[in-house]
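User:
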Amino acid sequence: MLEQINVTLNSIAAVVVILGLCIFFHELGHFIVAKLSRMKVEEFAFGLGPVLAGFRRGETLYSIHWVPFGGFVRIAGMEPGERQVPRGFFSRPRPLQAATIIAGVLMNVVLAVGLFFVVNLWEGMPVEDSRKVFVGSVLKGQPAAQAGLQPGDRLVSADGERYSLWVEHVAPQSPADRAGLTEDSLIMQVEDLLVYTPTDLLLALRELNKPQVWLGIVGPPEEGAMPATLISTLDVPEAILSYEGELTASQAAQLTSQELGASFEPIGTSAVAGYIGARPDTPLKLQVERDGQLLDIAVTPRRVHDRIGKLDPSGRLTTPIAAIGRIGITLRPETRPAKVGEALEAAAIQSVMAVTGVVHMVAATIAGKISPSSVAGPVGIIAMTAEQAKYGWQQVLNLGGVISANLAVINLVPIPPLDGFWLVLIAFEGLTRKSVNHRIELAIRFAGIVIILGLFLGLVAKDVYNLTMFGVP
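Assistant: Predicted structure:
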């Protein structure tokens, strides 16, 4: 009972800290630049609802409110019809107006860098060219802990599987080559069947028992962009369909190499997680290395629900909720102690990738390449943060970096009351050299708030329904 209380309190603390930091840094950006621009800042508030505590220093009220989510900076002259306020927002040059707005977005990026930096120092840097997979954390009371898995165990194989479906080499003119597979691409699924290892791949081909199938493929990672997903056609060799021998993991790897012309990289964190996830309530044998000794550990994943990524025949990425297996561990690559400089450089790169990843995802969603059903609302974000807290604060801080990067992009959407609206308004008035009629501005802002409120309520309803029915947003 006491342990469950501690887990609950830790989860609550994680939610408050992460969401509070994201909001505080965003508003702090607006506040600092507004002050530097000599604008009159009437209030700098953290939280929503009734005031819990506050004090006034100079012309600014600094306040903390009861609900630790949300916050705002109240700058004079930003309300419609109140532009002529001395030292108000619109009394300052437009570059300073834009800088004040953009500062909030930039501070979310700065926070993301800071959080990733802490995680990099905490966990260390991945060892280059290492294919080793280690157990990061083990959740008490879950199948992995009950089976005896320990943090630091090196995972050698799962049911004898030692290879993933990340392509290492493709033989010219082979079926794999004609299907469009290239080095560093990933076979994600065979028609509607998700696959994670060569054995999965061959079993799927034999189950479908067709001379030609479509594959869901993830292309090689591109710098600064999301890996492309595509659909291609594979001609299935007759030798695979007619193979009658026992299909062990080593035989599957050999058969894919001989008949498909594709060899694969050693099993990694994503393949291990996917392999376990695809087998709820199914006993597995994990081979791990501990203190130089190989151990076979039997574990049965418990059945839970979560979102899984799948491609439909058109190549559209969907994220349906499905029953999956979980054993209560996190996985990590081989790491080494991080130097401060490299940890900071890596954090900056991670932040840029997180921001560009959100941009590409939004663009792909608008273009219809990604289903919008996977978008999490505020309740979903809270639930994910609380869940990560069970596995340790490294996971929480890493998720916080991703959330902060997401907020940086979302705030640039040009809908009131988001920052993007103010940037569009400033740019419009700069080009036309006249102010927008305050009645028109008020109507636009009201419409924007209605849209945002509608989206908010819709996402909350979706998250609450999914959490109630499936335990996942």
